[in-house]
Amino acid sequence: MSSLKYQSVLIKLSGEVFGGKNGFGFDHEVINGLSKEIQQIAQLGVRVGLVVGGGNIFRGTRSAPKGMDRVAADHMGMLATVINAIFLQENLERLGVETRVLSAIEMREVCEPYIKRRVDHHLAQKRVVIFGAGTGNPYFTTDTAAALRASEMGAQVLIKGTKVDGVYDKDPQKHKDAVRFDHLTYNDVLQKDLNVMDATAVAFCKDNQVPIMVVNIEQPNALLQAVQSGTGGTLVQ
What we know:
CATH architecture: 3-Layer(aba) Sandwich
CATH superfamily: Acetylglutamate kinase-like
Distance between the termini: 23 Å
CATH class: Alpha Beta
Largest sheet: 9 strands, mixed
Structural class: alpha/beta
Number of domains: 1
Order of helices and strands: EHHEHEEHEHEEEEHHEHE
Radius of gyration: 17 Å
CATH topology: Carbamate kinase
Helix content: 25-40%
Shape: globular
Number of helices: 8
Strand content: 15-25%
């Protein structure tokens, strides 16, 4: 374990990742692959927390009909993240990885309520902890939830899994001349309005000195490489 770059990590997975190429529903092959990679990381003795989005089921105001209350739409999005958290938990448990889902919105029949001391206990017992329901508050994204939970669990890095291999000065899927960054500062991201995480999440990480590593989740072993060597993506610190 001493040779690892990071020994405590928070991994942020968007809901769209769960949906695979379509971005909606559940791509079982993708989720099984992610679960096996998380299993490998946990077996190294790394403390692992996960924050999952819900965009493959409901995308908040983007999925809501015109005129729908923002708070109601955000609450629906939070519930979608719990569905994804339970789905991922089941996959990990089948692989023999002891896992707990903790929700910021209390629903005791299906998962535990978020209590920091419970998180500390589960992590000390080498369990993977999945955080559902974002922060439990409307108007805050799961990016911000990831920054918050990373700080609370004392993670050495927040790894964001995306569909590109780092941060670019513009969309690499639309612009062939897009330039990829290996390293950035928090101020670079905020001032240049780079598409890493939302500004609230980046500012929170800056204030609490949580580095952000952006990796391509579609590349085999990208998460494992980030944890072991701190390479394979763009580092913001």
